[in-house]
Amino acid sequence: MNSSFAFDRLRRSPDLEAANLFAWDASDLLLIDEAEKYSALVTAKQLVVIGDNYGALSLALAARYNLPSIRVHQDLYTSELALQRNAQELGLGADFRQLPLGAELLQGAKVIILQLPRSLAELEEIAQQIARYADAEAVLLAAGRLKHMSLAMNQVLAKYFKQVRAGLARQKSRLLTAEQPSLPEQFPAFPQQSYLAELELQLRVHGAVFAGVKLDIGTRYLLTHFSPELPENNITAVDLGCGSGVLAAVLARRQPRWRIIATDRSSAAVESARATAAANELTIEVLRDDAAASLPSASVDLIVLNPPFHAGSAVHSGVAHRLFEAASRLLKPNGQLWTVYNRHLAYRQALSKVIGRTELVAQNAKFVVTKSFRELDA
User: Fold this and answer.
1) 310-311 and 69-73 as β-strands: parallel, antiparallel, unpaired?
2) How many Cα atoms sit within 13 Å of 302 on the Cβ side?
3) CB contact set of 117 (below 8 Å; sequence gap of 6+)
4) From the centroid of its chain, how far is CA 281?
5) Left, alpha or beta for 258 (phi > 0: left; psi -120 to 50: alpha)?
6) 120, 163, 317, 378: which has the fewest Cβ within 10 Å?
7) Model pTM?
8) How many CA within 13 A on the CB side of residue 70?
9) Closest by CA position to 16, among listed 324, 299, 317
């Protein structure tokens, strides 16, 4: 079956493209093969795909079973765009209904195909939603790369399914099959809640958000040294790659007259940032976007950034450099970019080239904080 689908034509765009980054892997092939056992249930009304990074699962299943539509949940906006672009490139006319994690996605689902997330909290939120909304006889087919899997994943699924079994490894991937979803008497609520006493801030976090209910140590280090010295009025500030929205919330509290925008490509992140703002009664505009592409050029006075150093499961600096380019486009002349990053990444030269004059604000054994000023000739 897999040989008849043109996996080699799939692309990651608009996400990073690189020689060592791929739009599909062996765990996708494993899931597609396993779905064959449940082919009678693989229909538009009964199939749901979750975590399809670039569309390999949705597109191959749509082509194989001639499906007019598929319900799909992808946390990243760039994943949604990649699926749309790959569908167009392959000439597939199916309606890929890209939906949030919840009732509309899962009601009536009998076969759920899942690319396993690395985060146990994200897996738990997904399993919880399946147990709440999917058909009582639904089967979950979940697969991932062995190096990113753990026995704890089986334990999480066992809380929400009566039967969970692991398959044999194949091409460094493994399948987990979970059947008979059932909500336990007690389970954590999402978004999860915590109180950050050092910031006097209520935090609300969905499972897919980095650092969870704790304050990220890089963010803490940035806040310790953050002093932009800007006017109290007519300032637009952006938390670029906002995660749970901690930086945006701190900015909104310190400068209530500023326009604060929190943006991320992750639906879990923007929903977390929105909930964090509401819990603290703060006015923050929250935007799900690809590197703030929908914001006008030269419209921002201040950007705060704690960039990731990975692209999906691969360690890669390309995501950070893409965000630097976005900051360069967004900032007004002499606008400021405050960045915190792991010391070994040595981003200062890149920041100077892309943004302009970049000053070292602070550094310790693990992190560096820099302040960059947008120069027109950068």
Assistant:
1) unpaired
2) 24
3) 51, 123, 126, 207, 208
4) 25
5) beta
6) 163
7) 0.94
8) 33
9) 317
**Region for residue 288 given its phi and psi (left: phi exceeds 0; alpha: psi -120 to 50; beta: otherwise):** beta
What are the structural domains of the chain? 7-181 (3.40.50.150), 192-374 (3.40.50.150)
User: Which amino acid is located at 329 in the chain?
Assistant: R
Q: What letter would DSSP give residue 266?
A: B
Give the separation between CA 265 and CA 100, rounded to whole angstroms.
14
- Copy the structure tokens of residue 224: 């310790």
Strands (E), 233-298: 236-240, 259-264, 285-288
Q: What is the DSSP string of 20-61?
A: T--S--HHHHHHHHHHGGGGGG-STTTEEEE--SSSHHHHHH
pLDDT by residue for the chain (378 residues), tens digit each? 455 899 999 999 999 898 889 999 999 999 999 999 999 999 999 999 999 999 999 999 999 999 999 999 999 999 999 999 999 999 999 999 999 999 999 999 999 999 999 999 999 999 999 999 999 999 999 999 999 999 999 999 999 999 999 999 999 999 999 999 999 999 999 999 999 999 999 999 999 999 999 999 999 999 999 999 999 999 999 999 999 999 999 999 999 999 999 999 999 999 999 999 999 999 999 999 999 999 999 999 999 999 986 545 555 568 899 999 999 999 999 999 999 999 999 899 999 999 999 999 999 999 999 999 999 766
Q: Would you say 105 and 18 are in contact if contact means Cβ atoms under 8 Å apart? A: no
Residue 37's contacts (CB-CB under 8 Å, 6 or more residues apart) are: none
| Distance of alpha carbon 128 from alpha carbon 189, whole angstroms | 9
- Give the Å distances, CA to CA, from 364 to 189, 223, 224: 37, 14, 12
Characterize 105-134 residue by residue with b for buried, 16 or more Cβ atoms within 10 angstroms of its Cβ, and e for exposed. bbeebbbbbbbbbbbebbbbbbbbbbbebb
